[in-house]
Amino acid sequence: MADNKFAAYICSGCGIGDTMDVAGLEKIATREGKMTVVKNHPFLCNAEGVQMIRDDIANEGVTHLCIAACSRRAKAEAFAFPTAAVSRANLREGVLWAVAEGADHDEIRQEMAEDYVRMGCAEVKKMKLPEGNPNKGDAQNKRILVVGGGMSGMTAALAAADAGYEAVLVEKTGALGGFASKLWKRVPFSSPYAEPQATGVEEMVAKVTGNPKIKVHLNTTVTETAGSPGRFKINLAQESGSVSEESVGAIVQASGFTPYDMAKLPELGGGQANVVDQAGLEALAKSANGSAIKRADGKEVKSVVFVQCAGQRDDSGTHLPYCSGHCCATSIKQAMYFKDANPDVDTVVMYTDLRVPGMGEDFYRSAQQKGVIFTKGKASKVSGGDACKVEFKDLILDEETSTDADLVVLATGQVANAGVNLDDWTEVNTKAEGGDEAAKTQRTEMKTISVLNLNYRQGPDMPQFKYGFADSHFICFPYETRRTGIYAAGPTRRPMDMLQATEDATGAALKAIQAVENASQGRAAHPRAWDLSFPSARLEGCTQCKRCTVECPFGAIDEDEKRFPVFNEQRCRRCGTCMGACPVRVISFENYSCDTVGSQIKAVNVPDEDEEKPRILILACENDAYPALDMAGVQRLSYSAYVRAIPVRCLGSVNTIWITDALNAGYDGVMMMGCKKGDDYQCHFVKGSEMAYYRMSKIGDTLKQLGLEPERVQTQEVAITDNARVAKLINDYVEQLNEMGPSPMKGFG
Amino acid sequence: MTNANQQAVARYKNNFLKEVEERVEEGDMVKMCMQCGVCAGSCPLGSAWEHSPQKIFMMIRAGKRDEVLQSDSMWMCTSCYNCIVRCPRQLPITHIMHGLANYAHRLGIAPKGQPTREFAKTFWNNLIKRGRTNELTLTLAHYFANGIGPGIKTALNMQKIGLGMVMAGRLNPMEIFGGHSVKDLKGFHAVLAKAKEIEDRKKGFAA
Question: Where do runs of H (alpha helix) occur along A132-273?
Answer without folding.
Answer: 151-162, 201-209
